[in-house]
Amino acid sequence: MIFNKNNNGSEEFRFITGNSYLNNDFGLLVNDIKIETRELCKIIGKDIYNLAEYYYQGKTDDPDYSELVELIQTPIAFKVVLNMCRKNDVTHEDTGRKVKIDKNYESIPWQWQLDKDDQLQLESYYRAIDILIEYLDDSEIEIWHNSEEKKRTESLIMRNAVLFDQVYPIDRSGRMFLLLLPFIKEAERVHIEPALGEETYSQLLKKDELTDQQKKLLEYVYPPIALISMSLAIRRMPLGLIPQGVVRNYSSSSQTMDASEPASLDEIKQISDMLMDDALEMIDDMKKKKNGSGIYPLMPNNDPRNKYMMV
Question: What ranges do the domains of the chain cover?
Answer without folding.
Answer: 1-91+107-154, 155-295
